[in-house]
Every structure is written in C-alpha cells, then in structure tokens.
C-alpha cells in the first residue's frame, strides 16, 4: 500500500506539472498578457514595453515558465491585475463559500441519491423505480441554469418562501444546493441502482438466501456493502468537481465562490488569478482522487494495488 | 479491530459517519456566513483627541441616537458589476461609482443638470494659462469616524491620487495620465489646495467631481489611512459621504448606514439635504439579470440594475421602470483610417456607412422610444458638454450613401473589400450583436457591400485593437456616457502616440489640443461644440443611438430621481419610501 500511495503522489505531482504547463501556455496563446493589462484608451507603446519588462514578459518563454513555477511552489501566483491583490489571497477569500456550498450539495446528493437508488433496485419496476428514473433523467438532462432560474422564480418570486440569492442562514443553502446536487444525485441514483441490481443477482446473494439469512440482513449487510463501493469513486470525484467551483450556480445565486472568481478572472484576462484558481483546483482534484483510491483499497479486498 | 477491518465490516456505519461529518462541517460553515446583522445602535460619530489635540481616526464608543424623522428602513440595491471593488480612489477602476458615491465626499459636487458645484471645495479658481488650480477647502466637514476634514487630508489624498506614485502605480489610466503632468500639489495658507500642471487639462475639474465614474475626487482621512494602510483602508474604508460602511463582503455585499453628519445639509448652508431619507443601504452584487428580476419580484430588492429586454417581466412582477437618462451610447469606428491603403481613409466611405443606417428603425425594432434615441454625436449626447442639435446623427439617406460610394470609386459596392464588424454582448446596452447584424444587413442592402459580424469578448477585441490587429475592421461597441468627454477625445484625436487614436490628422489634433487647453468653465461649451463639429465632419467615428438605463424599482419605493449621464445609481437622497 505504501508503494501504491507513493506512486500515486508522484503521478499527482507530474499531473500538476503538466497542468501548470497547459495553464501557462494557454494563457499566452490567448494573447499577450501585457496587452490585456493595459487600458487601451490611454496606453502608449512605451507603456506597453515598460509593463512587459516589469512583468518579466520580455524574457524567453522557458525562463518565464521556470520563474512562474518557482513562485507557484512558494504559493505565490502573482498579483491580480484587476485590483493588485495577491491572487492567492483572493482565492482563499472565496474558498470558504465554495466549500460550504459543495459540502451541503454533496451531502444532499448522497442522502437522497443512495436511498433512492437502493429503493429503485429493491422495488424494481415499481412506481418507486419509475419515479426514480424520471427524477434521474430530469436531473441529468435539464440545464443547471434553467433549473436554477425556475426554482428561484417558483420558490422565491412566486411562493416567496425562500431567498432568491446570496449567502446567509440555512435557508440560503436550499435552492443552490438542490441545483448543485441534482445531477450528482441522479448519477448516484442510477449507479446505485444498477450496482445494487448486479449484486442482488449475483450467486453469493443467492447463497446467503439459501443459508436462510433474513432478507434484511441480505440486503443491508451483504448487498449494500458491495453496492456502495462504485459509488465511493463517483462521489469522491463529484465532490472534487464541486470544490473546483460551480460557476453556473455561483453566478445565478450570486454566491461569491471560486467559480465566479475564475469566471470573472477569465473575462477580465486576470491571468494570475486564472492560473492560481486552476492550479489549486487541480490540486484538490488530485488529492481527492488519491483519497478515493486509498479508501477503495480498504473497502474492496479484491483490489490489490501492490 | 483494525481500521481496515472495521471499514470492511461496517460500510454503512462508515458512510453514515461521513454524512454526519459533512453535515456538521456544512452547518458550522453555514452559520458563520450569517454575520450580517445590523448594529442595533447608530454609528459612532465623535472623536477622541489625543493630548496634542490632533484629531485621530479612533472612533469613540459613545453612540448617537438615530434621528427620529428618518425611517429605520433598509433600501436594497442590486448591481451587475462593481468594478474592481477598491475604495482607495487611486486604485478604483470600473464601475466603482456604484458604491463610491455613497461612501465618499468629493472635492467638487454635481447636480441633476450636470453642473459642477461646490462640494468639499467651496470655491475654485484657475490661472489664465490653465495650469494652476486653487481649491478653497470647506470647514467643518466630518469623516465617518467623526474626525474633521482638514487641508492635510485633502493634500494627502490628492498626492495619493495624482502624485508621482500615481503616475507609476495608478490602476485607473486617466489618473496615471494626469499624474504624469502634475508638477506640484501643495497647500496655500490654511485652507487652500493648489495643484499645478505642466500641461493644461480641461477635464480636471470634472475628474474631481462626483459626476465621473472613477472616484478620483474623493477625499480620504489621512490619519486613518496611515493607521490602517492601503489594504486596511480597502477592507474598512472611511469617507465623508452620505453613507458609512458597516459591513463589506467582497463580491457579495456592502452594507452602509446613513451618516447623520454628512456635510451636504441645510445646517451647513446648502439649499438641499443630501442625506438619505432611510437608515440603511444594502448594496448587493448580483451579476445574473434573471436573479435580479426575481429578487425584485420577491421583495428581496428595491432597486435593480435592469435591461429593457426584461421590462415586461419587471412590470408583471409588480415593479416599475425608472430611467437614468443618457447612460450609454453605441460607438462605431474603424481603427487605422489614416492608412491610405484602407478604404476608410476616404471620408466619403465613412459618411456613406453612416447614411446607410436607419437608426430610427433600429430603435423602433430593438428598443423603444423611451429607452433609446438617435441624438448627439458619440459622447456628446444632449445633456453633455459641447452638445448642440447640429451634432445629431446623419439622417438615413440610402441614395446619398450610394452617391458617396460611387464617388469613392465603389459604385454599388463593386470592388469594396468585405468588411468585418467586431462587437460584443454588453451589459449597459442590450442587443448589440443583433444591432450589428441589422447594420450589416443595411450596408449590404443599401451599399452592396459584404459584411461579416464577429461577436467576441470585450477584452479580446480591445486588446487586438490596441495591438493594431483590427485596423480596417469595424469596431461596434458601447461606451459609458459622460458630461465631459474631453479626456476620451483627447486620446482619440489629440494624442499621436495614443494606441486608441482613430485619426492622425494634424488639423484635428491641433483643434482637439486647443479645445482641451481651454479650462475656463464659461468657454468650454463653445470650445467643445466647435471641435466636436470638426470631428463629426471628419467622421472617423459616430454612433447609432444612446440609451437610457432602466432601473427596476420595487413597490416600496415611492420616488427616485436619478441623474442623467450615469450608468450607476445616483441621487440616493431623492429616494422616498412609501
């Protein structure tokens, strides 16, 4: 297991390096950063040259990349071109809002998705199964922005029972968390159902029944335990995705998280903030994937990483 | 039992524990976000004087009861953008006036007629050569911490905003440009600020007023700034405006309270009381238009930045529209027309393009008569400096347009290269891509030329324009209306090394420079009118229309009279609640 973890950490570092290369060069491919940082209405050619020198953009690309990497390793992603604040500071200022929403959204997805998936499998072809399928199809097919606006109009503008935007008390989490969770919930439901059905049809479940175990024990002890394993991977990766910021939900609900920060930074060509956000998001993703892999090894004795 | 063994036998327990942990964290985090409760007492407004008697920014703990006549109500205003959310004038860029005008007191005030009137400065004078400005500073103006504004505060702020450091570090381009031509900032006697320039800058007074988008005329308390430094000030700003900041949550909320001691009130000799008629102002940043409209209908907001496209939705939701007149205008130009190889170097072509556009049809089909109008020439809209009716757009005249094209050597568009028109979706004027498509169709029909409309993003197009990659292509964009478009036009016509120049014509440059050097207020209308006519005649740029910004207003608001020429909320003291 130790070797496996070391190998995955090494892979993670390599992935981050590749990500840093992609981010660094894609920023340059979209245009000269100095051009975007200068106010067009007032800038002169001399201003442009001076800015390039100040930012180190007059050096060869390879030198620029090495400098960028050195700074990034120290957690220094540069200064936001929009407000002259350290990009790292901006990122950490917005991170709590994203973590709050992602956590609630993920909890909701699991708490609703897992039981519904099991119910759909156990009561196969029943009305519960049909409802579950419908719920999952809508969750996967309906665009998030549409669902968000419809929910705001219904519960905020028409029924006036929930706030329409922003952070605040627990009631402020309800609509954004539902929108965020719905598609993940649908994935968990479908995956849980199919996984449960597969287990229920397997020989070892038939064997437990032949042994005379109660249906309760068969279901909850033997079937569910095995059916949950694939869900772990899905949920872990979904959580990593949520932590990377849910741009649509954050924009529609005026939620000040890193998704909105990234969107604003891209629109404003605020390269240091774009680089910081993407790198930290990549880091989250890799760490989450690693944790999921380790948990998987614990939960499934058939998995032999060594 | 080992951890591994425990996990293997009890996945349900493990998952359950995980859920509980997640929920616990979420609830804990969630509760921390509810710290927006308003203070139960009014803000402090007195000062503790240290032994040497110099006022400091330390607030007293004593409280002052709120005035009984002011309703203890909150007005919530939602904006789509807040600029870069900096409170220090030197670094505030973009739509910062949305909060700046509530927080700050400005050296020069304004009014609904776009006149510059005394604010923190009671009077001003300009030397004959237009280089030396003197401002007499008002006595008794208070900052939100209760400290009294002095000449020292003004000198400190002006040096921070226009001094040598600003030339190097100002994020706002116009401030950096002025800083480069500022020779000195000094006090004369005990109550006069003197600023000396190396080059006359006609728009300087306007830039010091509350009527311009950057907060460049705002005054900060020196002692407080020195105590908390730059970042401290940007987190917890203090100004001399009609509202003081209670809570600031980046990209989310600025909660402000009425400042009872705001200087602009009858007790200080003013005929108007510019203190709000409500206690709390809750500014919210909500970039999504549907969310703002829904919030208005739900009663979660009182005033929302809106768009003519959602007018019916607002009205169906029980709201109404109040317009800020002349908030933005469309602007059409072709960069690089001084290059003889480009077809636009021929004035006939430039005029033909304008004559071929039916502006009234665009207004009727895409906008409405109360939300848009085809009047004025680019920034010289009817309420702006330099306007006269003879600056109104060229009429729709396809026959004349065709004659001009023939005279330019392109009869029926024959031999005319395919034009590319770059535009983007803008927040201040809806339907820009649609308008561009309509214009392209009109040019194709009336001039026989082919046009490709390219809808991109604002920053990319601006960047490419600056890099001279769009020379010969049309740029069709929006621009914020303003009373004094001088600095803009100086960059476009009066400065040869400006990347944004649209002309290199030495005659126009000389005319622009001459007009821009005239600083005497009584001469500026005529000077600008004269040069605008010259520039319009050359026709390097023109506009199709200007728009009035529609604000969605909820049922709690009885009246509100926003000023023209401002795409952000103004005149908040005119808000009256039902």
What does this structure look like?
The complex is a heterodimer of chains A (306) and B (578). Chain A is mainly α and 306 residues long. Chain A has a domain of 175 residues: MetI-like (MetI-like fold), CATH 1.10.3720.10. Chain A contains 13 helices and no strands. In chain A, α5 packs parallel to α13, α8 packs across α10 and α10 runs antiparallel to α13. With 578 residues, chain B is an alpha+beta fold. Helix content of chain B is 32%, strand content 19%. Chain B has 18 helices and 20 strands. In chain B, the strands form 4 sheets. In chain B, strands 1, 8, 9, 10, 11, 12, 13, 14, 15, 16, 17 and 18 form a 12-stranded mixed sheet that branches. The N terminus of chain B is likely disordered. Classes of the chains: A mainly alpha (306), B alpha+beta (578). The interface between A and B is large, with 67 and 66 residues.
Could you say what the CATH topology of the domain at 94-268 in chain A is called? Answer: MetI-like fold
What is the structural class of chain B? alpha+beta
Number of helices of chain B: 18
Amino-to-carboxy terminus distance of chain A:
6 Å
Tell me the strand percentage band of chain A: under 5%
- Oligomer designation: heterodimer
Which pair has the most extensive contact?
A: A-B, 67 and 66 residues
Give the helices and strands of chain A as they follow along the chain. HHHHHHHHHHHHH
| E-strand count of chain B | 20
Cα distance, first to last residue of chain B? 70 Å
**Portion in strands of chain B:** 15-25%
Structural class by secondary-structure content of chain A: mainly alpha
Radius of gyration of chain B (Å): 27 Å
User: How would a crystallographer describe the biggest sheet of chain B?
Assistant: 12 strands, mixed
Per DSSP, the total helix count of chain A is 13
Average per-residue pLDDT of chain B, rounded, comes to: 88
Mean pLDDT level of chain A = 87
- Report the helical percentage of chain B: 25-40%
CATH superfamily of the domain at 94-268 in chain A: MetI-like
Can you count the beta strands of chain A?
0
Unreliable residue runs of chain B: 1-66
């Amino acid at each position: 297991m130790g070797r496996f973890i070391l190998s995955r950490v090494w892979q993670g570092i390599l992935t981050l390096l590749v990500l840093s290369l992609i981010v660094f060069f894609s920023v340059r491919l979209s245009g000269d950063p100095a051009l975007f940082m200068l106010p067009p209405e007032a800038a002169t050619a001399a201003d442009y040259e001076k800015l390039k020198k100040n930012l180190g953009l007059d050096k060869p690309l390879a030198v620029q990349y090495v400098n960028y990497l050195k700074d990034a390793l120290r957690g220094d992603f540069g200064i936001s071109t929009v407000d002259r604040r350290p990009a790292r500071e901006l990122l950490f200022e917005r991170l709590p809002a994203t973590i709050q929403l992602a956590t609630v959204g993920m909890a909701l997805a699991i708490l609703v998705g897992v039981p519904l998936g099991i119910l759909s499998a156990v009561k196969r072809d029943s009305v519960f199964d049909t409802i579950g399928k419908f719920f999952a199809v809508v969750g996967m097919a309906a665009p998030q922005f549409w669902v968000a606006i419809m929910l705001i109009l219904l519960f905020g503008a028409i029924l006036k029972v929930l706030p329409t935007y922003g952070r605040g008390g627990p009631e402020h989490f309800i609509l954004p968390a539902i929108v965020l969770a719905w598609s993940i919930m649908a994935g968990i439901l479908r995956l849980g159902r199919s996984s449960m059905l597969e287990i229920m049809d397997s020989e070892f479940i038939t064997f437990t029944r032949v042994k005379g175990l109660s249906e309760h024990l068969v279901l909850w002890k033997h079937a569910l335990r095995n059916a949950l394993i694939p869900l772990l991977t899905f949920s872990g990766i979904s959580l990593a995705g949520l932590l990377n910021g849910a741009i649509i939900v954050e924009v529609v609900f005026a939620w000040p998280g890193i998704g909105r920060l990234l969107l604003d930074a891209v629109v404003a060509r605020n390269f240091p903030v774009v680089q910081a956000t993407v790198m930290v998001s990549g880091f989250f993703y890799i760490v989450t994937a690693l944790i999921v892999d380790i948990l998987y090894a614990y939960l499934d004795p058939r998995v032999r990483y060594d | 039992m080992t951890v591994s063994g425990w996990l293997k036998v009890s996945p349900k327990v493990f998952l359950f524990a995980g859920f509980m942990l997640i929920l616990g964290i979420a609830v804990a985090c969630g509760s921390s976000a509810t710290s927006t409760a308003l203070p139960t007492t009014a803000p402090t407004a007195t000062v503790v004087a240290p032994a040497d008697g110099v006022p400091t920014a330390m607030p007293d703990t004593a409280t002052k009861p709120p005035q009984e006549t002011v309703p203890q109500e909150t007005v919530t205003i939602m904006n789509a953008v807040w600029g870069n959310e900096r409170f220090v004038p030197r670094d505030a860029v973009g739509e910062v006036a949305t909060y700046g005008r509530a927080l700050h007191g400005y050296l020069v005030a304004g009014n609904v007629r776009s006149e510059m009137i005394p604010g923190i400065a009671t009077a001003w004078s300009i030397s004959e050569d237009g280089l030396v400005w003197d401002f007499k500073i008002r006595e008794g103006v208070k900052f939100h911490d209760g400290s009294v504004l002095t000449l020292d505060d003004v000198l400190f702020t002006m040096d921070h905003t226009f001094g040598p450091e600003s030339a190097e570090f100002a994020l706002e381009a116009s401030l950096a440009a002025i800083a480069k031509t500022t020779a000195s900032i000094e006090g004369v006697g005990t109550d006069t600020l003197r600023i000396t320039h190396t080059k006359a800058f006609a728009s300087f007074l306007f830039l010091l007023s509350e009527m311009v988008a950057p907060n460049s005329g705002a005054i900060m308390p020196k002692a407080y700034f020195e105590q908390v430094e730059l970042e401290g000030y940007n987190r917890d700003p203090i100004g001399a405006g009609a509202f003081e900041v209670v809570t600031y949550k980046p990209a989310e909320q600025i909660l402000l309270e009425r400042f009872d001691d705001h200087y602009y009130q009858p007790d200080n000799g003013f005929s108007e009381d510019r203190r709000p008629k409500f206690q709390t102002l809750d500014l919210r940043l909500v970039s999504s238009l549907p969310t703002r409209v829904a919030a208005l209908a739900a009663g979660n907001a009182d005033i929302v930045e809106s768009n003519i496209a959602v007018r019916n939705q607002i009205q169906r939701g029980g709201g109404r529209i109040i317009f800020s007149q002349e908030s933005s205008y469309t602007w059409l130009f072709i960069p690089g027309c001084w290059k003889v190889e480009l077809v636009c170097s021929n004035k006939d072509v430039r005029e033909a393009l304008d004559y071929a556009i039916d502006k009234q049809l665009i207004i009727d089909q895409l906008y409405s008569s109360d939300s848009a109008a085809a009047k004025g020439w680019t920034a010289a809209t009817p309420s702006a400096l330099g306007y006269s009716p003879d600056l109104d757009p060229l009429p729709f005249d396809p026959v004349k347009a065709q004659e001009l094209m023939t005279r330019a050597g392109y009869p029926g568009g024959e031999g005319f290269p395919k034009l590319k028109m770059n535009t983007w979706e803008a927040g201040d004027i809806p339907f820009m891509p649609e308008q561009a498509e309509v214009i392209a169709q009109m040019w194709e029909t009336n001039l026989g030329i082919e046009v490709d409309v390219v809808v991109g993003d604002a920053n990319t197009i601006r960047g490419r324009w600056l890099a001279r990659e769009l020379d010969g292509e049309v740029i069709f964009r929006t621009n914020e209306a303003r009373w004094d478009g001088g600095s803009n036009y100086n960059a476009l016509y009066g400065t040869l090394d400006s990347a944004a120049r649209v002309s290199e014509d030495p005659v126009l440059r000389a005319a622009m420079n001459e007009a821009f050097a005239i600083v005497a207020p009584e001469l500026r209308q005529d000077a600008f009118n004269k040069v605008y006519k010259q520039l319009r005649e050359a026709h390097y740029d023109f506009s199709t229309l200007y728009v009035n910004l529609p604000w969605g207003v909820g049922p709690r608001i009885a009246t509100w009279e926003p000023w023209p020429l401002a795409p952000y909320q103004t005149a908040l003291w005119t808000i009256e609640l039902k």
